Amino acid sequence: FGSSCKNWARLVESTWLWESLGKEFVELQFPQASEGSAKEKYRTVLTMHRIPCIKWQKQLSREFYLPCSREGHAACNVDDRILIYAGFCNDSDLLCLDPAGTEGWVALACDGQVPMPRYGHSLTSIGNRQALHFGGLSSGGYVGETNDLHSLTLGENWTTSVAAGHWKREEGTGCAPPRVGYHAAAYADAQGPTGQRLWIFGGIRDRRPQNELFSYHMPTNLWTKHTPLQSTSVVPKERFGCSAAVHNDSVFICGGYTGSGMFACMDGEDLSDVWIYSPGAEVWTPIARCNLVPRSLGRCHTMCLFGRKMIFFGGTTQTSNAINVLDLKTLDWHQPKQMGKSCGRISHTMTRVGTRLYIFGGCDFEQAPLRSCAIIDLMPENEDVEEEEEEEESLDLHSRIEMLVHTHPWLQLFPREVLLQLMSEMGEGAELPGADGMQLSENIPSNDADFEDLDEELGAPFGADDIEQVEQGNPLQDVVLEDMEEDSEVSEDEIDTD
């Protein structure tokens, strides 16, 4: 027994042990773990990888050139530089941002078979100064789907060269995906069943969400459609605006939306699930549904891998600035403490460079397109937890509204600006009164003429019977229309359902 204890003590102090344990985090390159013994470095890395706190940094200086406002664009990391292409905007340039440089955003000139402008597409880094561009929509209203695949190869000195790179349309063989947009895409360069493959899942086609999984094998240019071996196997719901990642020979599919459009359409569900696909067994497994509020896995959110952690931000039309983190080893969720704040977004991009996340474009809660680039520092230096707890700011109004609507779905009836005013007037920490027999119009000091007209038309805006109908699965719009017909002489044909 004494000999075993001595051997164990020697093992605990051995450099080999701690360097072996730290291999999981080598690619993360924490600056805080650059000094000290192998044991000290590992303990520092393990603490940092838990992501206990994140800090919102100032946005990029307006002295730099800023790309035009956009949403539905695509981005990826190539050589620790951020590439952005197209989107729903008037700009189809390939843009580059070097976070370590001083030039800001730069438009890159590329030759070859350049993809036509589009939105809802994907741009995925595949290493060695290369990226793959797939799918997207070419016309407004979620139509004009495409399924073309282009490779982008950047030159050796691509950041300073006049001809930065070359586009090429890839003519793959096999079973290619159908035309689709707002799909999820992921790539892994490692060997194994998931390696050297571009994985494509879901998306929207003919205004209907999809749930098919395809992969493109780079060495052979072969497309493959992946279906479960057993017809009775569970599969993810049809969805678009979801995200994907490859980790340890498994494909992860996260969140998204089951409806027919992004902003005006309320005919679907914002999802909060995570699925894992095992290529060797050809089987889907649901895991780790997010139960945190506010959530950040709904339609057109973003997700980045950080070691074995998935970091989610944004999504859903009721945007928030919540950060949700999933540990792929323990399958535990948590929300790190936030220092600073930024607006919530939908249909944006989030690209990781080192220990920072760069969030560009998208739309805010008013559905206005953005051109700003916010930065999240995953490893803030000189963090003083006690001081931060004293100065911690409460949830912003938009996040509080999202939590209320999540708890009380009937609040969807009221315009966003009215709920904002209500929460502001009620003050911090106030709770919404019970909905049974409640006259919300008496609690909302609003001068909005449209809302006053709606209130006058409805009489009692929403009562317990109506809430019960919604909870039983009746569409909210149908319940509201029924109330309007009962409380007025307006017929259903004369009501503007929008």
From TrEMBL:
Family matches, as Pfam families: Kelch_KLHDC2_KLHL20_DRC7
SUPFAM superfamilies: Kelch motif (SSF117281)
Family annotation (Gene3D superfamilies): Kelch-type beta propeller
Keyword field contains Membrane: no
Source species, domain of life: Eukaryota
Record's keyword terms, sorted: Kelch repeat, Repeat
Residue numbers spanned by region Disordered: 430-451
Repeat recorded as keyword: yes
InterPro entries, per database record: Kelch-typ_b-propeller (IPR015915)
Classification via PANTHER family: ACYL-COA-BINDING DOMAIN-CONTAINING PROTEIN 5, FIBRONECTIN TYPE-III DOMAIN-CONTAINING PROTEIN
Protein name: Uncharacterized protein
Organism, as annotated: Eutreptiella gymnastica
